[in-house]
Amino acid sequence: MVKVTLPYGKSKGITITIPDDIAVEEITPKEIEYSDNPVMLLQDAVEKPIGNVKPLPELVKDKKSIAVVVDDHTRDFPRDAILIPFFDLLAEMGVDKKRVTIIVGTATHKAPTPEQLEQILGKKIAKDYTVVVHDASAGDLVDLGKTARGTPIRVNKAYHDADCRILLTDITFHYYAGFGGDRKSIMPAICGADCIDVNHGLLVDPNARTGSLDGNPVHLDMAEAAKKVGADFVINVVSEAGKGVVDIKAGELGVAFEQAVAIHKAHFNARIEQQADMAIVSSGGYPKDINLYQATKALTQTIDSVKPGGTVVLLAECSEGIGNDNFEAWIEDASKHVAKTKDPAEKLAKAFDFLEKRIKSEFVMGGHKAYFIAREAKRARVSLVSGLDAATISEKYFMEGASASSGKTLQKDVQSLIDKKIREGQPKTIHVIPHGCELLVSHINMIQAEKEIISNAKRKIRIGPPFITKYEKSRIVGARALQLALGAPPLIAPEYITPDKAEPIEIADIELQEKVLPIIIRRTLPSKEHEDYAVDMFPGDATAITKDIFLQ
Predict the structure, then answer these.
(1) Which range, 26-35, 240-249, 419-428, is most confident?
(2) Fewer CB under 10 Å: which end of the chain, C or N?
(3) Contact between 512 and 476 (Cβ < 8 Å)
(4) Partners of residue 386 on adjacent β-strands
(5) Residue 474 to residue 138: CA distance in whole angstroms
């Protein structure tokens, strides 16, 4: 039997067993080297910033008021490794605690309880500093106009009025903003509810997706708003929850972010060639699974790990319930809309259509979660193991509900469900994902892989198409075949030359495919400007991959 342990709430984890005759693959972040001295990493980052900003010690010198925005209790920021040492560093820089206001960027989340505030800051910092919990409906938010997309910008007054404004955050995947971190510590973290609604309403754009910033309107709108509001210094931490800090990129808003994102993607974007029949996914334990609203990020980010029509078992305790009133309201409305429909597949399809139309016509923050759950439920059969009422989940939330408290029967309850799903689906392959909220799982099929190759080639080939054209191929192969016919030795290994591939023209074609020819292709513009490209810079020739794939 194969044994795997998955996080669940605040428990020590749930260990499940899977029969040996099933191929099991555990999908985790790529091999990561954690910093053995994150404090030194932090100090180096703030003293040698990226972009057009002063080192933090110079920046905070003589500032009368400093605002520091930190993540709220629904995030798993490395408090002991980074947050507490950061405020120690400020003290070492001569910053009086009385000059500092800590702003907890809650966006429209519920305000943290005293216990949760201690979870964010630690007991001493929560006691020693002025702490402001952002209120998205506060009457004194400062109006700074609108973005080009029409999003109002109304920001926290304490932040706006400070002489020096610092963002302390981490990089995560975000299912429609692309990534968390940096500009997100302003929009939505410390902006008004109406601002957030308009910005998040852009998620219906197909470019608003997990792990993507290019052309992503949600990200671009956030970045524009953040730039108008302003930040003097940003600290972007790349870490893995509960394990360690990978890197820190600090400095100018947006600039340091780009470097941090590149590092995060390199470690936490899991690309798979084969999808599994079944996936067992944990949101990652507390606080990732604090409520259903937060926990379902894991479902969205890992749905590509399973074949269409496959089975997903999601483990998320949801100790604080659903987590958003609008989320619940939209689920209720969708349930009423399909109440008379009996067929489960038809019911799901109608509910999804209802939610898709609604999200495009009247976006409300929180309601979008109902849309995302319905979308993923159309993709695969989902079972949710949680502390929520199983009957309610099964009836309304497009998933099969299975109740599992954190008591003595937790292990047994979860194993029973896994065994049941294996009996029902008879999977030959299972993907196990212990930290679904931290990973982005991407299935790379052949066409996607070829598109990525071409995309990379386009960055290198500035003149003409990013492939060897049929005309260039004809000239190269023809010239090389003449050389071979006149006695030039082949540049490929003897095993490539077979009785049916022995003619000079055929050998030349293979040499081009293998990119062993020391030939330069010169491309010239009408202006006489030209660039030279080695054969091995191109991913293929005009007959290798269809032209429509190249040019998409």
Answers:
(1) 419-428
(2) N
(3) yes
(4) 403
(5) 70
Q: What distance in Å separates the CA atoms of residue 152 and residue 229, rounded to the nearest whole number?
A: 12
Residues with Cβ within 8 Å of residue 170, at least 6 apart in sequence: 71, 75, 77, 78, 180, 181, 236, 237, 238, 239
Residue 154 and residue 144 in contact, taking contact as beta carbons nearer than 8 Å: yes
CA of 489: how far to CAs of 389, 481, 482, in Å?
Answer: 75, 11, 12
Q: What is the DSSP letter of 65?
A: -
The DSSP bridge partners found for residue 312 are 279, 382
Segment (H or E) for 477: helix 470-485
Both tokens of 121, joined, read 């800051």
Tokens 């600290």 correspond to 235
Token pair recorded at residue 488: 């030039």
CB atoms near residue 342 (< 10 Å): 7
> Are 443 and 505 contacting, i.e. CB atoms less than 8 angstroms apart?
no
Measured CA to CA in angstroms, residue 448 lies from 308, 442, 445 at distances of 17, 10, 5
Average pLDDT over residues 51-67: 95
Structural tokens at position 519: 């030939």
Which among 70, 92, 93 is positioned nearest to 83, based on CA atoms?
70
Which residue carries 């009025």 as its tokens? 161
Q: Locate tokens 């099929």: which residue?
A: 445
Side chain identity at residue 495, one-letter code: E
The Cα 499–Cα 503 span in angstroms is 9
Residue 237 token pair:
């931490």
Task: Report H helices in 306-389.
Answer: 325-337, 344-361, 368-379
Neighbours of 1 (CB within 10 A): 8
Three-state DSSP state, 544: coil
Q: Please say whether the dihedral angle defined by the alpha carbons of residues 319, 197, 238 and 436, taken in this order, is positive or negative.
A: positive
- Rounded Cα gap, residues 139 and 130, in angstroms: 20
DSSP alpha helix (H) spans, 269-324: 292-295, 297-302
Residue 252 zone, left/alpha/beta (φ > 0; ψ -120 to 50; rest):
beta
H-type alpha helices, 236-324: 255-268, 292-295, 297-302
Q: What is the pLDDT of residue 454?
A: 61
Which of 373, 333, 340, 339 minimizes the C-alpha distance to 354? 333
SS3 284: coil
Question: What is the DSSP annotation of 162-198?
Answer: -SEEEEEEE--EETTTEE-SGGGGTTTTTB-HHHHHH
DSSP helix/strand/coil, 118: helix
H helix intervals, 114-250: 114-121, 123-128, 157-161, 193-200, 217-229
Quick: pLDDT tens for 485-518: 999 999 887 767 877 788 999 999 888 877 788 8
Mean pLDDT computed over 292-296 = 93
How many whole angstroms from its chain centre is CA 465?
A: 31
